[in-house]
Automatic annotation (TrEMBL):
Keywords: ATP-binding, Hydrolase, Nucleotide-binding, Transport. It holds the Pfam family ABC_tran. Its EC number is 3.6.3.-. The keyword Nucleotide-binding applies. This is Lipopolysaccharide export system ATP-binding protein LptB. GO terms for molecular function: ATP binding; ATP hydrolysis activity. It is an enzyme of class 3 (hydrolase). It comes from Cognatishimia activa. Residues 2-250 form the ABC transporter domain. InterPro entries: AAA+_ATPase (IPR003593), ABC_AA/LPS_Transport (IPR051120), ABC_transporter-like_ATP-bd (IPR003439), ABC_transporter-like_CS (IPR017871), BCA_ABC_TP_C (IPR032823), P-loop_NTPase (IPR027417). GO terms for cellular component: plasma membrane.
Length: 261
């Protein structure tokens, strides 16, 4: 579905992404892990159009999408969320969702004068869709709350809900579990699984919580120093000596040795 070939993203002399190549298969929940500074978010930003890579190629179902802007990728069904939620804080959670679909009738001045019935019909349909999304995510109780006043975990669920307001095919999740309490983390994980199984979403997620990664992801891709160092199941990655040394830490390695005695 997504194929990245020899991608580079340089900032002056700093090589944030340095020859990364990987594949994200359709229908998977792919984990992307690595130490801080490994290039994970820069890679995401290159794929999702936030950054234009220095060199290399990004393909989506065989189509070259390298350097396309986020709004172009949005129309192809490629979306991303951010580590820090980007909600419209003064609008309700329902209104945040209703804002997502592009090309709404009420966006033009002419239609606000002469297309009022069509606007009203469209808004009713969007409201119903937003309420369906909120119910799916089990956060219907916050529908009328200002988005800026809900918890961090609820904002992450709202970000996930935005992807459900359009025909998303590929969703990139940037540390969706960061700063979220365990109860809401399980709710987020369940929503991701259901979207994958029931609605055919393909996900790629950056995450540091290995338990969360193990619960959701197969395969798991490990980045270090701007390139891919390993790919495998969560169990294979957690037992890979090179990955343990580079990312999981010598403490894990020593613990494994102690357990073997």
């Amino acid at each position: 579905m997504i194929e990245v070939r020899d991608l580079h993203m340089h900032f002056g002399g700093f090589r944030a992404v340095d020859g990364a190549s990987l594949t994200i298969e359709r229908g998977t929940i792919t984990g992307l892990i690595g130490p801080n500074g490994a290039g994970k978010t820069s890679l995401f930003n290159c794929i999702a159009g936030v950054l234009t890579p220095t060199s290399g190629t990004v393909l989506f179902d065989g189509e070259d999408i390298t350097g396309l802007k986020p709004h172009n990728l949005f129309h192809k069904g490629i979306l991303r969320t951010f580590q820090i939620a980007h909600e419209f804080h003064s609008m309700t959670c329902r209104e945040n969702l209703m804002m997502v679909p592009a090309g709404q009738t009420g966006e033009t001045l002419w239609n606000t004068w002469f297309g009022r019935k069509r606007i009203a019909d469209e808004e009713r349909a969007l409201r119903a869709k937003a309420d369906e999304v909120l119910e799916f995510l089990t956060i219907e109780h916050i529908a009328d709350l200002k988005a800026g006043n809900v918890s961090g975990g609820q904002k992450k669920l709202l970000e996930l809900g935005r992807t459900m307001m359009v025909d998303a095919e590929m969703v990139f999740l940037d540390e969706v579990g960061a700063g979220v309490n365990r109860t809401l983390l399980y709710t987020i994980g369940d929503a991701i699984k259901r979207l994958n199984v029931e609605r055919g979403y393909t996900f790629c997620m950056i995450e540091h919580d290995m338990d969360f990664i193990k619960q959701l992801c197969d395969p798991v891709i490990v980045m270090a120093q701007g390139s891919v160092m390993a790919t495998g199941t969560a169990d294979e990655i957690m037992s890979n000596e090179a990955v343990i040394e580079a990312y999981l830490g010598t403490g894990v390695k020593n613990k494994k040795k102690e357990g073997a005695k």
